[in-house]
Amino acid sequence: MNGKGPEDARDPAAPPALEWKFAQVFGERTAGEEVQEVDIISAIEFDKSGDHLATGDRGGRVVLFERTDVRAHGCRRDLERLDYPVSRHPEFRYQTEFQSHEPEFDYLKSLEIEEKINKIRWCQTANSALFLLSTNDKTIKFWKVQEKKVKRISEMNLDPSQAGGNDSSASSSTAGPRACLPNGGCSYNYMCNDFSFPPGGFPSLRLPVVAGQETSLVAKCRRIYAHAHDYHINSISNNSDGETFISADDLRINLWNLEISNQSFNIVDVKPANMEDLTEVITSAEFHPTHCNTLAYSSSKGSIRLLDLRQSALCDNHSQLFEEHEASSSRSFFTEIIASISDIKFGKDGRHILSRDYMTLKLWDINMDSRPVATFQVHEYLRPKLCDLYENDSIFDKFECCLSGDGLRVATGSYSNLFRVFGCVAGSTEAMTLEASKNPMRRQVQSPARTARSLSSLTRVVRRDQPVAGAESPGIDANGNSYDFTTKLLHLAWHPTENSIACAAANSLYMYYA
Amino acid sequence: MAMIDEPLYPIAILIDELKNEDIQLRLNSIRRLSTIARALGEERTRKELIPFLSENNDDDDEVLLAMAEELGVFIPYVGGVEYAHVLLPPLETLCTVEETCVRDKAVESLCRIGAQMKENDLVDWFVPLVKRLAAGEWFTARVSSCGLFHIAYSSAPDHLKTELRSIYGQLCQDDMPMVRRAAATNLGKFAATVEPSHLKTEIMSIFEDLTQDDQDSVRLLAVEGCAALGKLLEPQDCVTHILPVIVNFSQDKSWRVRYMVANQLYELCEAVGPEPTRADLVPAYVRLLRDNEAEVRIAAAGKVTKFCRILSPQLAIQHILPCVKELSSDSSQHVRSALASVIMGMAPVLGKDATIEQLLPIFLSLLKDEFPDVRLNIISKLDQVNQVIGIDLLSQSLLPAIVELAEDRHWRVRLAIIEYIPLLASQLGVGFFDDKLGALCMQWLEDKVFSIRDAAANNLKRLAEEFGPEWAMQHIIPQVLDKINNPHYLYRMTILHAISLLAPVMGADITCQKLLPVVIASSKDRVPNIKFNVAKVLQSLVPILDQSVVESTIRPCLVELSEDPDVDVRYFASQALQACDQVMMPS
């Protein structure tokens, strides 16, 4: 099933299959509740520490969650020594949300610009202020989310009510020209040149006293990186130097300095002189996690190019090209469409790249460009249905993929709110199908390629064999593989340090741990 | 609430507004911090205002930036240099904020205050502050600390100096690339305060670590350090420590590093002395001139003159000139453009013979370049060539280039060449100008683009200034006045504009005899836009002309215009009449 060697060659080093448990859900739908289009989650991203999680939605909002289980109990190590039962999985709570993008209209091109958040990327935290980049189709924004003291001022020199009453007398006296300000305060030409200050100052003046130490989270847009993309932005990615990031659209990749929003450098341009010659577009791009000069981007033809930014200013020539040629015998009308890569991710070690195309997940070793080190079939059962999928446009769905922090497993989404987790260590046969619901393992079904080990893990899960409810009734094939094309799980993210997955099913954010 | 005396009322408001909801008012108050401090007196400023500012540091970045700036010049308001240390705590906090520009300003202010502090105060207050920041939990504090070492170091006793050097060494190996970049940026400044003995050992080893950093962005900044450190070291030390590094950098894998080398290399030549320059730096520079990456060649080409000035003429002719020849036909227009903007400066270095023999052909080929930028860059530096080879040799090839640019289909190119016409005129002389360029200047007055017509009018004024009213009377005025009969009102308007510009240069007599009648005649134009422009021009002529003329000619015309059916014409006519009245008043 997962394209590995024969079962008996299994490497004893392969870790045991994980048993996934439901942890949390945010924005759960009640039965029969209709999903609002604007509430559908369109981006998920953990920050580097895993203490924060951000989601973006089609309504242009960004919602932040923070981890509670570590901080709330103080130091976890102390607790363990005290032999308290420790909740072993990350637990998050809603932190704040803000409107990142608004719908716009480009009058020059007569184009509506959706507010939908395409990608979110966390930046370096500083002074407990959180920083993140969010983008829609055209504009990238740099946000700072910070706790601000709620100020309550007492002890003013002037009673605000009194200040109003003083107006007439002040303006007729020595104070000089004044102007009323919209907030009712007033400002003066303070420096009268002949005004003399006594050496000890005026004792009657005093500074305002600030009372109240309550805090609230405030999100502030620090910079807007606009007008650099003619096509829709599909990716943004931070560089390990903490200073630059890239943004990629269908035909170009631009390099930005976080501090400079009015200029960017075009580093990749695949736009042909004549648009009729266009055969390939950029679908996703990401910086190497540690090498500041290495960048990978994927294309609609199923290839991944590795760029070395040191070689030249305009990276028209890739330093490495990863692609797998399908045998010409199996070519069909759909071959090129399903080869299109929808997402790529570097592993934390920087040595592996995970790519997702319509049918498979592929894991590449950057030292081997001839073929992937592993291929995991995600949608093979849909192959006979490609014609239908093409007709209802599902074949163009862009599924994301993710790697676990330890690099041992990979995950990606599918239809019917399912997602799949594969073990990617040589010899591992772990291949799980989970459902984004409170009972993720209920879709675990026996399939011929699975091993005893994963079966044994199955037996511990209570199977619910009763018929599934109305919405999920369309097409479940003999193997229990289902394809409800309206409920697709496109976005998911793996916690950077623990076995915990956050995934989006329409407007709900489900979290699982193992 | 306290009762405030009326004279204090504005200051009281200023103080209250330090905490106003409206950021504009808070900013305003912070900008007037010195006024507040004077009103409070030195002691209360120290004991109340400064602590107040230290506490209220979660304001918007704009306010914090203003605060950082104001505090830098606050020493007089806290009671002079002996109390300068009270200013350090609020600035220390500002050194840790997330916004780079606020931190930079706070560091700048701290340096300014530190430079005035007494030596023992520095040891008591400033050095501990630097150490605290350098050990900060967040990278922002550590980044800021790097910019303060050069102030803290020189007054510190020996044991502290040792500590500061070792802290700086640690900052250069910080986990965060931002900190390493800050350390690399400030290394030159810090090194300048370090004793020579330590410079050669500790600082050089810090520097070598930075040059091998795996972040390109850090290595880039280390290149900048090369020149700064090179100037501090003895030539022989520079040769042993810096030279190998820079030669390595010039062959770095990253084009951005090579780009930096290309920009900096000439600065090192003096530091290492003539022989290593010949043996190592010239070959390195030649490699950069022939680099694969256009950006690197652009940087190298831009420094060709500065580099040649340091070399002997033979070295320049033997090694650099062949590269320059190649670059003049480089595939990248930007390289040629960079070369064109500096190549003229090579002429004095090479001397007349070499210039005519070798440089002139390059120069002429650039003058025929297909890209207007390249040609413009050559023409902009015309005065430099003129000094060496004289205009006669040039004029033949120059003229076609100018004519072509003057008729370029991009108006920005035409605009650029118009800007250079006065320079050309002064270099080429009246004779040449009359023959060849006069017609062009007139032609621009009837350009399709407003900016060009506008610039053309200005150009006529500058030419009149250059060659004098008499010449202008013969060569400009008649041609300009002819055009007032253009059937298109926009062109007639350009002429009116030109007249208003020329009048002050030409003086009262010519204006009165030649220009004024034309303007007056235009007041009968059928287009209102012309008529109100006539009113504007007449207004501008009032101060130039004799009062009797104003009364006899201008005023009647304006009175007539002030009764025009068009509202705009009436408006500008009445404005002009007011101006006439004002001139009358003093007399």
Automatic annotation (TrEMBL), chain A:
The B regulatory subunit may modulate substrate selectivity and catalytic activity, and may also direct the localization of the catalytic enzyme to a particular subcellular compartment. GO terms for molecular function: protein phosphatase regulator activity. SUPFAM superfamilies: WD40 repeat-like. It comes from the Eukaryota. Belongs to the phosphatase 2A regulatory subunit B family. The keyword Mitochondrion does not apply. This is Serine/threonine-protein phosphatase 2A 55 kDa regulatory subunit B. PP2A consists of a common heteromeric enzyme, composed of a catalytic subunit (subunits C), a constant regulatory subunit (subunit A), and a variety of regulatory subunits such as subunits B (the R2/B/PR55/B55, R3/B''/PR72/PR130/PR59 and R5/B'/B56 families). Keywords: Repeat, WD repeat. The keyword Iron does not apply. GO terms for cellular component: protein phosphatase type 2A complex. Residues 159-175 have a biased composition (Polar residues). InterPro entries: PP2A_PR55, PP2A_PR55_CS, WD40/YVTN_repeat-like_dom_sf, WD40_repeat_dom_sf, WD40_rpt. Pfam families: WD40. It comes from Elaeis guineensis var. tenera (Oil palm). Residues 155-175 are annotated as: Disordered.
UniProtKB/TrEMBL annotation, chain B:
Keywords: Repeat. Residues 276-351 form the Phosphatase PP2A regulatory subunit A/Splicing factor 3B subunit 1-like HEAT repeat domain. SUPFAM superfamilies: ARM repeat. HEAT repeats lie at residues 10-48, 164-202, 203-241, 242-280, 281-319, 320-358, 359-397, 398-436, 437-475, 476-514, 515-553, 554-587. Pfam families: HEAT (PF02985), PPP2R1A-like_HEAT (PF22646). Belongs to the phosphatase 2A regulatory subunit A family. This is Serine/threonine-protein phosphatase 2A 65 kDa regulatory subunit A beta isoform. It comes from Elaeis guineensis var. tenera. The lineage of its organism: Eukaryota, Viridiplantae, Streptophyta, Embryophyta, Tracheophyta.
